[in-house]
Amino acid sequence: MKVLCVDDEYLALQLLKEFISQVPDLEPVGFLKSPIEALKVLQDQEIDLLFLDIQMPTLAGNNLLKALPHPPQTVFTTAYADYATEAFDLDVVDYLLKPFSFERFLKAVNKARNAMARKAPAGIGAQQLLEGTKDYMAVKADGKIRKIWFREIRYVEGLKEYVRIHCEEGKYVVLERMKTLEEILPKGHFMRVHKSYIIACNRVTGLEGNMLELGADRIPVSRAKREEVVKLLF
Q1: What digits encode the pLDDT tens for the residues 5-19?
Q2: What CATH number has the domain spanning 2-119?
Q3: Does pLDDT of 136 surpass 60?
Q4: Strongest mean pLDDT among 63-77, 114-128, 187-201
Q5: Of 20, 56, 168, 229, which has the fewest CB atoms closer than 10 Å, so is most exposed?
Q6: What is the β-pairing status of strands 153-159 and 144-149?
Q7: CATH superfamily of 133-233
C-alpha cells in the first residue's frame, strides 16, 4: 500500500517512519509537515493509506480530508479525542491517539487493508492475492504480485501476521496466515511440522533430536508432530 503521512510535528513523522519501515508491504510516498503540500500530492498521486494529523497550521487535517473528492483510507493521528465523532462522519478507518504503540499502529493498518479488500473489484480481494493454482501460487511481496513455483520452496516460516517463504533464490515476506499457506500448498509435498514452520518434504535431509535438517537449515519439530514426521519422511 502506498502511504502518505501528514503531521506538523517532526517527532510524530519520525515515529510513523519507523513503524512503516517495519511493515514490508507499506510503501511510503512522503512524510510531510505541510497540509497544503499534502493536498497537492493527494491530487496528483494515487495514495492507498493516509496518516493525518488534525490540528495543523494553514489547513486542519479534517478540512483537508473534506477537500478531497475521493479520499484514500485515512487514519487520524492526534493528541485530542474531541474529533472522534467527526472522524466517524468522515468515514475515517481508525483514530489513533498520541502517543500510540506499534501494535496499535499495526491494528490501524490492518483495518485499512480490510476496508480496501471489501471495496476491491471481484477477483482482487486480499485473500485472492495469495492463491494456489497449478504448480505455483501468486503472492504479493515487495509491492508486486509474484509467481512462486512450489518446486522452488524450501520452507515457510511464520512471523505473527506475516509469513516468510524461503525459496532457492530468495525469501519473500507475505501478509498471510500459516493456516492459509497450509491449505494452499500441495498435500503430500509439504508438511506443517511446527506452529511456525511448513517444510517441503523433498528438502529434508536428516533429523537430529527435534531438529529437521534441510541442507544447512535447521527447522524445529513440535513434540506433537515428531512421530508423524518420522513415519512420513523417514
Answers
A1: 999 999 999 999 999
A2: 3.40.50.2300
A3: yes
A4: 187-201
A5: 168
A6: unpaired
A7: LytTr DNA-binding domain (2.40.50.1020)
Phi-psi region of 107 (alpha: psi -120 to 50; beta: other; left: phi over 0): alpha
Residue 129: pLDDT above 60?
no
Q: Which amino acid is at 29?
A: V
CA distance 126 to 92: 20
Q: What is the pLDDT of residues 82-106, one digit of tens each?
A: 777 777 778 888 999 999 999 999 9
Could you tell me what percent of the chain has a pLDDT over 90? 47
Domain ranges of the chain: 2-119, 133-233
User: Is-above-0.90 flag for pTM?
Assistant: no
- Single-letter code of the amino acid located at 159: L
